[in-house]
Specification:
Helix content: 40-55%
Number of helices: 9
Shape: globular
Strand content: under 5%
Number of strands: 0
Mean pLDDT: 79
Radius of gyration: 18 Å
Low-confidence stretches: 6-34
Distance between the termini: 30 Å
Length: 185
């Protein structure tokens, strides 16, 4: 359905000229809970800022439609902290390079969330340009599922209904939890 992105960029609902201030498309987690309005905007959103559910689903579908391709490697963030060595090995194999084990270990260590946050001046988008009060603010927590314990039962049910309309169970499991959720990680 069009509410799910339809798999093609042309099927996206038209975006308004400017999203309202304060509605970023995903729930605001830091303010003591998600506001119902911003969560509803995420689920049903037709906005510019943030990433509404339909755009996430459309991106996922568009990527699946391009597989298998020699120049495409699909990774899920949740899998990377679970197995950083495996993720680094997959990336290296995909681009056809190999490094001595000590260098691979150093690469993995540098790519860990804690290392990237500590070196935010090097890794955060727009680092050193004053975009954020502190560059390390880009690296919030390094975790997924920040919604857990913050959404109401009605919001969870609404999300479940919408995502179930959009994706079959295995695709949903991968999108929500990564390859290990489908036994492929």
């Amino acid at each position: 359905s069009a509410a799910c992105g339809g798999g093609l960029a042309s099927s996206r609902p038209p975006a308004p000229p400017r999203a309202r201030q304060g509605v970023a498309g995903s729930p605001t987690w830091r303010g003591g809970g998600a506001s119902s309005e911003s969560f509803r905007t995420f689920l049903e959103g037709n906005h510019v800022e943030g990433a509404p559910l339909w755009s996430i689903v459309a991106h996922h579908r568009e990527t699946l439609a391009r597989e298998p391709r020699e120049n495409l490697l699909r990774l899920h963030y949740a899998d990377m902290p679970r197995d950083p060595e495996g993720a680094a090995a997959r990336i290296a194999a995909h681009v056809g390079i190999s490094h001595p084990p000590a260098l691979m270990a150093a690469i993995v260590e540098a790519a860990r969330f804690e290392s990237m946050k500590a070196d935010a001046h090097r890794f955060a988008p727009s680092a050193g340009e004053g975009f954020r009060a502190r560059d390390d603010g880009f690296f919030d927590s390094g975790g997924s599922n920040k919604w857990e314990g913050r959404l109401t039962r009605a919001e969870l049910d609404a999300y479940d209904a919408r995502i179930s309309e959009c994706l079959p169970p295995e695709e949903r499991a991968w999108l929500e939890r990564g390859a290990s959720a489908i036994g492929a990680g």
